[in-house]
Every structure is written in structure tokens, then in C-alpha cells.
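Whiteboard transcription, Tuesday session. T.W. wrote the C-alpha cells on the left side:
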């Protein structure tokens, strides 16, 4: 059977039965005249759909690659930020520790300064008392005494003073 034979035959011309009396099984539309344009149209549509599917698959693959790259970039940025946050926390902790140590040092130094000030005030008061005692002793014994001498012993006074003779 040739293509021309298929074109010229109609439904009436095609037997519905085989030669031995059985009904013919199969597609009856193949015997229509318009089967060829219909088949070509279906082929073109199928080919177009396959091309569309292939293009969409390629685009999906490209989008998937881009998403993977973006995910990798975000992961890197996240790791960098976590590192920076960790470093800031450590710096903040170290800063608080240094502030605490500095505060303790200041308190210790203030306490030592207070103790030294008290000690200095006691020594100053003792010096004044000794100077007063030396003046009194000089008045009674006629010893030479340097005025305004702040040292305990008049014999080692290093200020340039005029000596007075107590009478």
C-alpha cells in the first residue's frame, strides 16, 4: 500500500473485518484523509514541547547553580560575621576584665594613698612637736637653733638661715 492508496481510501473502502471474519483491531482514524497533516501537526507540537522542556531544564540547571553559588556566598558571609561577632564578644569580655582590674588597682592605690597621707600627717605632726620641743629646749639651755628648719636635728639643717643666739 502506498501513500496514494491511503489518500484515496475512505472509511467505506476499509474493511472492518479480516478475511477470516474477525473484526479488524486498531486505529480507524489512520484511514482518514487528514491523518497526515494531523500527524505532522502533532509531531511539530511534540518537537516544540521537547525543545521547551529541554530549554526549561537548562534554565532550571542554571538557576540551581546560581542558587548554590548564592548559598555558598551566604555561608561564607555568615561565617565571617560569626567570626566578627565572636571577636567582638572576646574584645568586650577582655575590656570588661581590664576595666575590673583597673577599678581594683584604682581602689588599691586610693587606699594606699590614704594610708600614706595619714602616715605623712602623723610624721608632720611629730615634726611639729619635735620642733616645738627643740625650741623649748633651746630657750632653757642656750643652744643655737636655726629658724624654719624642718628637720628633726638642728645640726643637719640644710636651709640657708641666719642663726640666732638665744639669750
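and on the right, the sequence the group agreed on:
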Amino acid at each position: 500500500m502506498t501513500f496514494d492508496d491511503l489518500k484515496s481510501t475512505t472509511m467505506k473502502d476499509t474493511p472492518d473485518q479480516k478475511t477470516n471474519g474477525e473484526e479488524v483491531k486498531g486505529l480507524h482514524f489512520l484511514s482518514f484523509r487528514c491523518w497526515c497533516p494531523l500527524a505532522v501537526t502533532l509531531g511539530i507540537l511534540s518537537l516544540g514541547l521537547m525543545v521547551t522542556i529541554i530549554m526549561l531544564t537548562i534554565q532550571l540547571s542554571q538557576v540551581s547553580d546560581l542558587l548554590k553559588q548564592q548559598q555558598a556566598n551566604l555561608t561564607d558571609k555568615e561565617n565571617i560575621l560569626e567570626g566578627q561577632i565572636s571577636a567582638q564578644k572576646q574584645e568586650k569580655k577582655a575590656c570588661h576584665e581590664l576595666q575590673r582590674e583597673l577599678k581594683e588597682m584604682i581602689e588599691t592605690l586610693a587606699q594606699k594613698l590614704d594610708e600614706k597621707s595619714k602616715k605623712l600627717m602623723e610624721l608632720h605632726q611629730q615634726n611639729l612637736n619635735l620642733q616645738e620641743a627643740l625650741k623649748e629646749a633651746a630657750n632653757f639651755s642656750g643652744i643655737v637653733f636655726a629658724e624654719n628648719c624642718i628637720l628633726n636635728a638642728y645640726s643637719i639643717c640644710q636651709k640657708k638661715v641666719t642663726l640666732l643666739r638665744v639669750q
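Someone added at the bottom: The helical segments are 3-8, 35-141.
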